[in-house]
Sequence to fold (199 residues):
Amino acid sequence: MAQNPMRDDPTPPPALARTSAARIAVNVDGVAHLDEVEPRLLLVHYLRDRLGRTGTPIGCDTGNCGACTVDLDGMSVKSCQVLAVQADGRRVTTIQGLAGPDGAWHPLQRAFHEQHALQCGYCTPGMIMAARDLLKDNPDPTPEEVRDALEGNLCRCTGYQNIVRAVLAAAAELRREGAPEPRGKAAGAPRASGQEAPA
Ligand code: FES
Ligand code: FES
Fold:
């Protein structure tokens, strides 16, 4: 009887073979992480499921709602449209990294609270991260410019009026403070092996 050479071969066929893990070093909210991830893992899933940064929600997983927006090396990105491996060697800031070292809210966080710019709050982290990106380039935007900048972020609750008002209020506060956040690349190299290390 003819032998089937495939039968005793323990190597799984290519389609069933496990994808090999990739090693990444990423700084998230000031903390350095070294991890192994599947190459197909989305950044938003890495942040939420591996690092527990659940302040970044998933609204659609298709790049439409903006809820998952984070800052990647100074640019806002929808983290459901970025692979975790693409964050290798880079700095990610989420909504949970915006407060000051003393826990004081970022002016945008304060303004959203004070201007009643949220109801369910699901869109709020993404709105704030996208608005922060706008204010780096344009510290004194018009209402139309705010609306343009936030067009990729959907809110099902507020009607957007108070969101625009909040961004304008935060912009004014940042101008008064004289401390517009510069756009820049400041990725600190993770400096320890293991799950995480202080940045
Ligand atoms: S969850 Fe990423 S854009 Fe909606
Ligand atoms: S506050 Fe509910 S989706 Fe914006």
The helical segments are 43-50, 107-114, 124-137, 143-149, 161-177.
